Amino acid sequence: MQGELAADYPSLSITILAVNEIGYDSGNASMAAVGDLPLLQDDTSAAVWTAWSAGWRDVVVLDGNNAEVYRFNLQTYDLRDSTDYEHLKAVFVAVAEGAPIPAGP
Q1: How far apart are CA 20 and CA 2, in angstroms?
Q2: Residues contacting 20, CB < 8 A, separation 6+
């Protein structure tokens, strides 16, 4: 999706990255084989998962001020489903453009 967003909306600043929960870093080395999504390892000094009350497979969309504006869980929604995929993509675009977030799938 990151590649599509960059190609389709080159003027928008949209960056997708993953934040791995504290204590689950043993698989970080194998993540490179799965894809090219940047992966940040959470730690006790940042405690991002705690600060965001993040759940497993949450996509937390932030605005330009790094404030959460939308949450999309990949356990509930499946990006292999084109409706779910296009919805999340539209959310990224709307947030980057400062437009209203589209209604959920």
Answers
A1: 18
A2: 28, 39, 40, 41, 42
Residue 77, amino acid: Y
Q: Which residues pair with 40 in a beta bridge?
A: 19
Radius of gyration of the chain (CA): 14
What stretch of H or E contains 30? helix 28-34
Say which DSSP state 44 is in: T
Residue partners of 30: CB distance under 8 A and separation at least 6: none
Give the pLDDT confidence of 39-55 residue by residue, as tens digits: 999 999 999 999 999 99
Instruction: Provide the whole-model pTM.
Output: 0.90
How many angstroms separate the Cα of 5 from the Cα of each of 57, 73, 78, 87?
Answer: 20, 20, 18, 13
